[in-house]
Amino acid sequence: MQTYSHFIITAALLKPIRRWSEQRRLPPLRLSALLWGSVLPDLPLIALTLICGLIDLRSGLEFGSEAFFETSTMAKLFEVWFFHNPWVITLQNLFHSPLLLLSYIGLSYGLWRHGKKPMGWGFWLTCSALLHSLIDILVHHNDGPLLLFPLNWSLRFHSPISYWDPAYYGIPFAIFEHSLDLILLALFVIAGLLKGRNQRRARLRS
Asked: N or C end of the chain: which has fewer CB within 10 A?
């Protein structure tokens, strides 16, 4: 799923997550942690993509050309290194691996319970990253998160749906994903307008 969609969906889930957390012995909910966690898993690959793009730009390769898809650094990143380079695999799964994320969650929660209050922020950061990972597992056919990394460097869930590959319903899913994004954004705008109107009415009454 697109990184911005993770961000929008997580923001939309804020109220249900807040209600759920208030009924349990958990750290105080932090919106900034949730929002950063929603994009955190993708940041290493985004950084690598930008670096590879700059390398290709400096080499004079024309984006979209046949030579680009055959010889570019970016093509190697996604077609070869993503699956076989240990450094790329590690960076991609550092915040995508459910096993690692559960470890981070448990560690941050334990430290928070023992008085390390700032770790409450880390708890919600990694919980949000886990939500991101679980969604990705369901919408990647053969390039999703490594389920047991770092214990296993190849095990992935092969979903029948790919958010980007037309061979695995990528086009209808993209329509669904971006329709959902637009609906949620519209609801945010409407909620903001209603909140502003109610605040103005309250000031007029006072």
From this structure: C
User: How confident is the model over 38-81, as pLDDT tens digits?
Assistant: 999 999 999 999 999 999 988 887 776 676 777 889 999 999 99
pLDDT tens track for 3-22: 999 999 999 999 999 999 99
Backbone phi, psi, residue 49, to 5°:
-65, -45
Contact 126, 103 (CB under 8 A): no
Measured in degrees and rounded to the nearest 5, phi and psi for residue 19 equal -60, -40
Residue pair 97/150 in contact (Cβ under 8 Å)? The answer is yes
For the chain, give percent helix, strand, coil, nearest 5.
Answer: 70, 0, 30
> Mutual orientation of helices 170-205 and 3-12 as an angle, nearest 10°?
40
pTM score of the predicted model: 0.92
What is the pLDDT, as a whole number, of residue 37?
98
E strand or H helix at 103: helix 98-113
**In the chain, which residue ranges form alpha helices assigned H by DSSP?**
3-12, 14-22, 31-39, 43-59, 66-71, 73-76, 82-84, 86-93, 98-113, 119-138, 170-205
The answer to whether the beta carbons of residues 164 and 174 sit under 8 Å apart is yes
